[in-house]
From TrEMBL:
<protein>
    <recommendedName>
        <fullName>Lipoprotein</fullName>
    </recommendedName>
</protein>
<feature type="signal peptide">
    <location>
        <begin position="1"/>
        <end position="17"/>
    </location>
</feature>
<keyword id="KW-0732">Signal</keyword>
<feature type="region of interest" description="Disordered">
    <location>
        <begin position="32"/>
        <end position="73"/>
    </location>
</feature>
Length: 198
């Protein structure tokens, strides 16, 4: 009898210990509430890194690690390009941030491009292109087999004052081409330096 009771007691204690550990883990990962909301700088950096924080938090954030290759203003937004890296397989990924500087919701509709195939991409950066002035060649955003762009789609638009991350993938220009011009919608063209990926 005592062996049976000891076994049951051990199982019960093990179950309690596991349950307590899980509850503490979930509580620790839950975030929010209390003093966690007070340090604005930390929450802003965290929100921008995850790309899902509130708009006002994202607008004023500027991680020290980010560099600015180019900046373009127009269409009611400010577009910042922070990276243009060649990837394995002959791709070039351009990325950065876009901030809505208008007074209303910005949907990105004017950036989707004029091609028939791009109409499926709605509010996205699908109409972007890279121009190699020296090689006299224009590169369009890559698409999958269903015509969807390999780029950011601005689902629901961007509220006034908010900033979101964006990216677009292109065919990589030939080796030796280290500067191209990025163009999208009615934004002024932006010259950017290309770098090698890791």
């Amino acid at each position: 009898m005592s062996i049976r009771r000891t076994t049951k007691t051990r199982r019960a204690m093990t179950a309690v210990a596991i349950t307590t550990g899980l509850v503490l883990t979930v509580a620790g990962c839950g975030g929010g509430g209390g003093d966690d909301d007070k340090p604005d700088k930390n929450s802003k950096s965290s929100a921008s890194a995850n790309g899902d924080g509130g708009g006002d938090e994202k607008e004023s954030q500027a991680p020290a690690a980010d560099q600015t290759l180019a900046e373009s203003k127009g269409d009611g937004v400010t577009l910042v390009i922070s990276s243009a890296k060649r990837d394995a397989g002959g791709f070039l990924t351009v990325s950065g941030k876009v901030t809505n500087t208008s007074d209303g919701l910005w949907t990105g509709g004017q950036w989707r491009g004029d091609e028939q195939e791009l109409r499926k991409n709605g509010a996205s950066i699908a109409g972007a292109s890279l121009v190699d002035q020296e090689g006299k060649k224009r590169y369009l955003v890559l698409r999958d087999t269903t015509g969807r762009c390999l780029c950011t789609k601005f689902d629901g638009g961007i509220d006034s004052g908010n900033t979101v991350d964006w990216f677009a993938q292109f065919p990589a220009p030939p080796e030796g081409t280290d500067q191209v011009t990025f163009q999208v919608g009615g934004m002024p063209p932006a010259a950017i330096e290309l770098s090698e990926g890791e």
